[in-house]
Amino acid sequence: QQALAAQTTPQAGGAAAQAQQVLQQINALYTVYSLLLVFDLHGRVVAVSDPAQAHHVGQTLQAPWAAAALSLQDPERHVVSRHEDSPLYPPAGGTAGEAGQPTYVYAASVQHAGQAVGGIAIVFDGERSRIVAVKEAFPLAECDVSPARPFVSCHARTASASVYVHRSRSRVES
């Protein structure tokens, strides 16, 4: 709240730095999050949890989920993006400006005195989540989880299966 409320004051830079520190601490605790970010009422990114993604600070979010989050009146509600490519979730070793990988973004409005002052978004680490899900489904199997391929293959002594992951659907084949 402080970083968003301070946007038009001389304290804006210090408040944004403090928000970044808090986001980094939260992100360190939850490894399924690729990125956390705070944005103002215009959708402009104020702070991010990952210094490697600092190029997003100052950019205006164009995704429909950002506007939907800002329109929420209830601080207990949130919105979820479609499972789609996001520049907020770049490929491993990717560069700024790339379309990004498919992921989900969860977002909510940040409220102060009953009014939205901005929003917060969680970008999920879709690749890590995919690997964890496959390893949980096949705990005794050896899995090839190469991010270069859209599928994961697992082999065990008693069974073999492939998990095909596409942008909008998944299926298991044995």
What's the total number of strands?
A: 11
Nearest-integer average pLDDT: 76
What structural class should be given to the helix and strand makeup? alpha+beta
The radius of gyration is 18 Å
Annotation field: number of helices: 4
Order of strands in the sheet with the most strands? Answer: 2-1-7-6-3
The termini sit apart by 50 Å
Descriptive labels:
174 residues; alpha+beta; 5-stranded antiparallel β-sheet; 4-stranded antiparallel β-sheet; 11 strands
Describe what you observe in this structure.
The chain contains 4 helices and 11 strands, in the order H-H-E-E-H-E-E-E-E-E-H-E-E-E-E. With 174 residues, the chain is α+β, with helices and mostly antiparallel strands. A hairpin with a 4-residue loop joins strand 9 and strand 10 (160-165). It starts with a helix and ends with a strand. Mean pLDDT is 76; it is low at 159-174.
